[in-house]
Amino acid sequence: MRRVRAKSPAVDTVMQAYLYRTEQDVKDLLGIGCRIRLCKGAYEESAEIAFPKKADVDANFVKLMKLLLPSEIYHGIATHDPRMIEATTEFAAKQGIAKDKFEFQMLYGIRTDLQRQLVRDGYRMRLYIPYGT
Q1: Which of 1, 33, 52, 89 could cross-link with 47 by S-S, CB 3.0 to 4.6 Å?
Q2: Nearest Cα to 102, choosing from 132, 122, 124?
Q3: Residue closest to 2 by CA, chosen among 38, 28, 36, 39
Q4: Domains held by the chain: number
Q5: What is the value of pTM for the model shown?
Q6: pLDDT tens per residue, range 76-129
């Protein structure tokens, strides 16, 4: 990522909260000004490299979100989980982080009610539309 960003600083990355290594990766990437899309992670990994329990993944997601939002880099919080959204909105409000300094990201067609509510509440929302085989 360092090599690619040196050529094009417009390149950003996705970090998966379920991996043990992600906290250090996030810290390293913040150090070079990298924009990050934080998601929980959706691949099947062994307990040697990933948190096996959902509660641990959720706790790490919140921990990582708390590293990202104060960084003054525009990040994406990618989740459909109302608890992760609530943790994010509460943390941002307590830290005085404006709603336009980050965005939520969700898949098109999933939890449209929640997407619309976040937009009504003044948050930014990016929808991803997966396509192809």
Answers
A1: 52
A2: 124
A3: 28
A4: 1
A5: 0.94
A6: 999 999 999 999 999 999 999 999 999 999 999 999 999 999 999 999 999 999
